[in-house]
Amino acid sequence: MTLEACTNLVRSQDPDRFGAALVANPQDRPALITLYALNLEIARAPFQSGEPLLAEMRLQWWVDRLAEMGTGRPPPLHDVLTPLWEAWGSAAGDLTPLAEARRRDCFREPFATPEEVAEYVADTSGRLMARAVARLGADAQGQAVAADQGLGAGLVAWLRALPQLQPIGLGLAGGDPADAARLARMARDAFQRAAGSRGLLPKRAAAALYSGPGVGRLLSGILENKVNILEEEVVITPFQRRASLARLALTGRWWR
């Protein structure tokens, strides 16, 4: 049970966060990689069963293990939890809310309003980014900035996935393009708030604040009615991904 399993998981399933983690100081990478591997596991746990009760039981297993780790109890040998324990120790207990926030996914229900989406994203992506920068030296004010950046990044990721979510009933209940535009404005505003307070974050935290490639293009396309994100997939090319990560590595600029 080594860090390699987490590294391979994040590399294959979350290439943007994986690439950003490589920009981090070497001593910070294990904490980021194990955090992102955990995030992948708890995100998919509710979808490993089509029965809501069974799905919730699968998610609860993660909630229980993280809570136990918070008391100082090592987890059972596991490809993700063992390296997580090695990197985080009992501080892994602070990650329990990340798993709790995925509970609504067990019930396969669409979101009734953009505000519901934003609340869910704040509790998942926003909280994830706040925990990451806390580990990289950010204080409470810096973590609040990261929560805004994570909200923006999470809304973008959710909008990008919407063409796949909508047909299976996991997107916006009304299927109204105006709701998607509202989410795009929320993302833009969250990014602007984070950029305006970027001085509250240490440079060391830049790798944990990456929002991904093609963000501006996607938001502009939605807000200018050039992209119907409920139906139209906006593809990121390998070149765009490499160029965006190279910019982060060379400049340390994470804000938009």
From TrEMBL:
SUPFAM superfamilies: Terpenoid synthases. This is Squalene/phytoene synthase family protein. InterPro entries: Isoprenoid_synthase_dom_sf (IPR008949), Squ/phyt_synthse (IPR002060). It comes from the Bacteria. Gene3D superfamilies: Farnesyl Diphosphate Synthase (1.10.600.10). It comes from Paracoccus aerius.
